[in-house]
Design a protein that fits this description.
It is a single chain. With 239 residues, the chain is an alpha/beta fold. It has one domain: 3-Layer(aba) Sandwich (Rossmann fold), CATH 3.40.50.620. It has a six-stranded mixed sheet, with helices on both faces. The protein contains eight helices and six strands. 26% of the residues are buried.
């Protein structure tokens, strides 16, 4: 019998797949894995669903290695490859060398470069969905970051179809909280890696994360309300 935390994660993924919907019959889904807890949990749960519940879909796995990042996670991912009957792909990207003179590397620009490579890989290998391990905390943090630092109300929707590519980004962990995923991985006895990027201090995300903790005081309902606000927009009361 599945544990309580696994049943909870499974239920939330099922709700996300149903509400938006994220995976349909015949989809070819490429899961982006970093070696961290979020993408690892996503991969395991999607793999467990194949041929059991819901629509039939194919699954592939991709890991992107940038020129400045710690290569250690690839060892962990190679071990996952041995355990799962799935195709694994590996991309090496010289992101830092792409910087033009006078510009500094930052998380947003790096993420954009990785996303472009991911989209092109999915297109050329006939995947029509890319599954990313962003959870509710990531989504809420991004919402507030964009409001504060960009002056816009935008975030990470669970389903993002692209106009220039026959591909959609999906986020099946959108209802899952980070602490739940941490508990999931711990119970499974799986080691995972955290971000060791030398440029992580350029990001505002850590500061926003602390502000959200202060605002919600650990109240999951308040965090859920922030998430739900993105689809409960009262446009008559906005500029």
């Amino acid at each position: 019998m599945a544990s309580l935390i696994r049943r909870r994660i499974n239920k939330k993924i099922t709700k996300a797949l149903h509400d938006f919907p994220l995976i349909e019959e015949g989809d070819r889904v490429l899961v982006g894995v970093s070696g961290g807890k979020d993408s690892t949990a996503l991969l395991l749960e999607l793999n467990n669903r194949r041929g059991k519940t819901g629509p039939n879909f194919e699954l592939g796995v991709i890991h992107i290695q940038s020129d400045f990042a710690d290569p250690s996670p690839r060892v962990f991912i190679k071990n996952l490859e041995k355990q799962l009957d799935l195709p694994f792909y590996y991309l090496n990207i010289a992101i830092e060398r792409r910087l033009q003179e006078g510009f500094k590397l930052n998380c947003y620009w790096c993420s954009t470069q990785r996303r472009l490579e991911l989209l092109e890989f999915a297109r050329t290998h006939n995947f029509n969905k890319i599954a990313l391990g962003h959870h509710m905390d990531d989504i809420v943090e991004t919402l507030l970051m964009n409001m504060l630092y960009k002056g816009e109300i935008s975030g990470m929707p669970p389903l993002v179809p692209y106009e220039k590519y026959p591909i959609s980004i999906i986020r099946p962990l959108c209802y899952c909280e980070e602490e739940e995923l941490r508990a999931y991985i711990k119970e499974a006895g799986i080691s995972q890696f955290t971000c060791t990027c030398n440029f992580s201090n350029n990001s505002h995300r850590k500061r926003i994360r602390e502000e959200i903790k202060s605002l919600t005081q650990g109240n999951a309902t308040l965090k859920q309300n922030l998430f739900e606000s993105m689809r409960n927009i009262k446009s008559d009361y906005l500029l």
